[in-house]
Amino acid sequence: MKEGGRVFCDVLDQSVLADLRELQDPEDPDIVVEVGGLFIKHSPEKVDAIMQSVEKDDAKGLQLAAHSLKSSSAYIGAMRLSTLAKELEMMARSNSLNGAREKAQMLKDEFSLVMEAIRAEIQLTGQSGQ
Fold it and tell me: Which among 55, 59, 89, 128 has the fewest CB atoms less than 10 Å away?
């Protein structure tokens, strides 16, 4: 999928989205639109919590926020984002935050791509009437 010259296939694992669509009940709203909308609504606060925890050297806060983002990212197919969150969670769990700022910035950059990709996926789904 292309949007604004960017290719989003690498940002969202299309097989995960296909698996979500397999769960679709014909009477219900589109499941990708629903799950994507929830991600868009709730994930920015998780990323903010990660960034704040890194700035405060708060390992416990980082562990909790990263764990939550790891799970929700994987559910929507944002596997690189999920991996970055997992790496931050492991750093926090071992109380070794050396390099966490750089990793958190990588996560924030990937998060921006994921948000664009989800919005594009929702728009595409709406246009195709799935």
Answer: 128
Spatial distance between the Cα atoms of 20 and 3, rounded to a whole number of angstroms: 22
Which residues, listed in sequence order, are joined to residue 3 by a DSSP beta bridge?
6
Let me know: does 36 contact 118? Beta carbons within 8 Å.
Answer: yes
CATH number at 65 reads 1.20.120.160
Q: How many structural domains are present in the chain?
A: 1
The Cα 28–Cα 84 span in angstroms is: 33
Q: Region 10-31: what's the mean pLDDT?
A: 91
Domain that holds residue 92: 2-120
pLDDT at 42: 97
